[in-house]
């Protein structure tokens, strides 16, 4: 390829450049010249480093499924094209990462990898007593409580997340062209440019809105319908209209729910619903079984059980996440319960 031809061709995008470098690095150690060129490219634009990281992630995904025939075919074409391009290297004043043959090959694999990645959800999961915060590819931030699992599926027209268990808060990057939705069970929360949390409990789904607006939908058969909630007059209305910053939606699910269940929307202290992100579990007139379910996300040894006779007791207070014994002792001091301790369990029962 001549320099004249190169000048007639648009320069590759940052994503294509990143794909080129992935293809080059897969061939082995960089030469001194190429290493210097890579450093220069990374320093040209702060976004180049992010593009390279994304390209490397996609390339690593190809490694994980390298035995797939389609992957083998695309990757072989990419590397073959790269080798041919290396044999036709331009003059030294032409940067080595502006090789069209390499770019086309790398872009082919990058595009294939992107499509492959979009078709497979990315799973983020925390274990007992471990929290995590991740930044998604669009800049949205997800904070995961302990014992939480989410699946992220991004595509060109939508950003879908499924909360399988636990609790997560979302700070959503604004993008009107790709609605951001979080589903758990039959409930779907749709948001664009907002901050909220979704929690999946054994018998409830809770949504707390911190900023912006959301829509709350409920799946009925194959149709998504607005979730209903009671307004101040006791009338069932669209829950999304009632759920404003500082409000919490609570919906009964599981064995305790009935078809067409109407949700409750109530005022909550935002701090009490975000302090878990810094290791504090705060309860305000909370049912004991709900509080214990949250505490048990941090139980690595003995777990807490609530006896049926204590299930209607409500508690308030702030506790350190992970200090199971302190929680059990604290509630027995402040509320009408006592504890029965065994080697692997603490049972809270109603005081006589």
Automatic annotation (TrEMBL):
Domain FecR N-terminal: 18-56
Record keywords: Membrane, Transmembrane, Transmembrane helix
Keyword Nuclease part of the UniProt annotation: no
A molecular function (GO) term: sigma factor antagonist activity
Residue intervals passing through the bilayer: 97-118
Boundaries of every FecR protein domain copy: 124-215
Protein name (database record): FecR protein domain-containing protein
Native organism: Asticcacaulis benevestitus DSM 16100 = ATCC BAA-896
Lineage, opening ranks: Bacteria, Pseudomonadati, Pseudomonadota, Alphaproteobacteria, Caulobacterales
């Amino acid at each position: 390829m001549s320099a004249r031809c190169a000048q007639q061709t648009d320069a590759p995008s940052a994503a294509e450049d990143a794909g080129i470098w992935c293809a080059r690095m897969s061939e082995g150690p960089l030469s001194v010249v190429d290493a210097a060129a890579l450093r220069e490219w990374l320093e040209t634009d702060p976004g180049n480093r992010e593009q390279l990281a994304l390209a490397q992630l996609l390339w690593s995904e190809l490694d994980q499924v390298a035995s797939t025939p389609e992957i083998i075919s695309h990757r072989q074409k990419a590397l073959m094209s790269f080798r041919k391009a290396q044999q036709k290297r331009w003059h030294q004043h032409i940067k080595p990462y502006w090789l069209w043959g390499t770019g086309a090959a790398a872009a082919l694999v990058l595009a294939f990898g992107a499509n492959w990645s979009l078709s497979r959800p990315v799973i983020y999961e925390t274990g007992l007593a471990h929290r995590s915060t991740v930044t998604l590819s669009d800049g949205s931030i997800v904070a995961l409580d302990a014992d939480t699992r989410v699946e992220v599926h991004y595509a060109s027209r939508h950003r879908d997340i499924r909360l399988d268990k636990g609790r997560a808060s979302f700070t959503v990057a604004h993008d009107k062209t790709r609605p951001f939705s979080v589903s758990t069970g039959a409930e779907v929360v749709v948001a664009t440019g907002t901050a909220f949390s979704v929690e999946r409990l054994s018998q409830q789904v809770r949504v707390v809105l911190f900023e912006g607006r959301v829509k709350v939908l409920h799946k009925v058969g194959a149709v998504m319908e607005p979730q209903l909630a009671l307004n101040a007059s006791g009338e069932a209305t669209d829950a999304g209209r009632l759920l404003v910053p500082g409000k919490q939606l609570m919906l009964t699910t599981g064995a305790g729910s009935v078809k067409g269940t109407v949700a409750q929307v109530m005022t909550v202290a935002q701090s009490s619903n975000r302090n878990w992100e810094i290791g504090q579990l705060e309860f305000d007139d909370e049912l004991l079984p709900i509080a214990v379910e949250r505490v048990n996300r941090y139980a690595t040894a003995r777990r807490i059980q609530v006896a049926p006779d204590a299930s209607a007791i409500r508690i308030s207070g702030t506790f350190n996440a992970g200090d199971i014994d302190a929680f059990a002792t604290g509630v027995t001091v402040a509320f009408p319960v006592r504890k029965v301790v065994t080697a692997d369990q603490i049972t809270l029962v109603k005081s006589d």
